[in-house]
Specification:
Blueprint: E1 2-6, H1 17-24, E2 28-31, H2 33-36, E3 45-48, H3 53-61, E4 68-72, H4 82-89, E5 94-97, H5 102-110, E6 118-121, H6 129-134, E7 137-141, H7 148-157, E8 164-169, E9 177-182, E10 193-198
Length: about 200
């Protein structure tokens, strides 16, 4: 059985009991090195994720008689590996255990409601900055190529320099920091982060 487990933004404290139980019964844990390191007492096989996703799919397909648990950052179906695994194997063969997304976590820490928020990501995709300007409230999972500074510069270039940008940096970690800045004030580089862009504070 293949199970995909959402780990939340960082710490095991944010994983659900169901997710932790799935890990405890796994024969194989698959995940990034940072994820696997959080289970030092796991007695089964560890399989580290790398950039070779097609190779991973072939490897998982060959493990049909083993309980394989794939660890996913945040929520597996919010710009995570869950979508690819469901597309590859079908939902009837994949059990998804949701997790707390970084966006959910950031909104909970700042009191920003999610009722009318546009959820998007810059991971491996071209960002439609014009759509970003038109949206009254946006949450974006960022990457090394398009982070807060690049987003802010694009907003300023489109006359939206007074938009609020809320940067959640290293969420749920000991060095967590949350910054409220106007777009025209953003100049620093930030560690692993999520941003929320608002018309008003």
């Amino acid at each position: 059985m293949l199970t995909v487990v959402g780990m939340g933004p960082a710490s095991l404290a944010l994983m659900t009991p169901m997710a932790l139980e799935a890990v405890s019964h796994a024969d194989v844990l698959v995940g990034g090195k940072r994820h696997l390191a959080q289970f030092p007492d796991f007695a089964g096989e560890l399989h580290a994720l790398d950039a070779n996703i097609p190779g991973l799919m072939r490897w998982i397909a060959a493990q049909q008689n083993r309980r394989v648990v794939v660890l996913a950052s945040g929520d597996p179906l919010f710009y995570g590996i869950g979508k690819r695994l469901v597309a590859e194997f079908g939902i009837e063969k994949v059990r998804i255990i949701p997790g707390i997304s970084a966006v959910q976590y950031l909104c909970s820490k700042t009191g920003i409601d999610m009722n009318d928020i546009w959820l998007t990501s810059s991971h491996g995709r071209a960002v439609d900055f014009d759509a970003l300007v038109r949206s009254p409230k946006t949450a974006m999972v960022t990457d090394a190529h398009c982070g807060p500074r690049e987003i802010a510069a694009a907003l300023v270039a489109r006359g939206a320099g007074n938009r609020w940008i809320v940067v959640g940096e290293n969420l749920a970690m000991e060095n967590e920091r949350i910054h409220w800045l106007k777009a025209h004030e953003v100049s620093a580089q930030y560690a692993m982060n999520v941003v929320v862009i608002l018309n008003e504070r």
